[in-house]
Amino acid sequence: MEFGVQFFPDVRPEQKSGAEYFRDALCLVEEAEKLGFSHIRIVEHYFHYYGGYSPNPMLFLAAAAQRTRRARLVTGAVLPIFNHPLKLAGEIGMLDAISDGRLDVGFARAFLPHEFRRFGRSPNDSVARFRECIEQV
User: pTM for this one?
Assistant: First the structure.
């Protein structure tokens, strides 16, 4: 049996600042590594306390890569509808190199209406954007 750590921030800034959240999260990453956990995972979400402290999973996982040597680094979901596919491909390649090949990338279509509104994207475009991104990456 394998165990991992999933980071899905669900905290309001008045409860815990971003600095405090990430300090605590990275301490947990180090502890998970010591305990032999198999992976560290984080999602991508925006503009709301529900997931809002994780707009860039790769950035967090790059910090986690510096504190771990064995654990897999996993994007619970990267959202192609809000990212340029070629930029995303470059970031994935860079993080995979930084982590010595420990990166596993998951993609998703996105589902929160407020994210689509704020980015000025239509949910109707998410399937085509998802497929385009997978092909390019």
Answer: 0.91
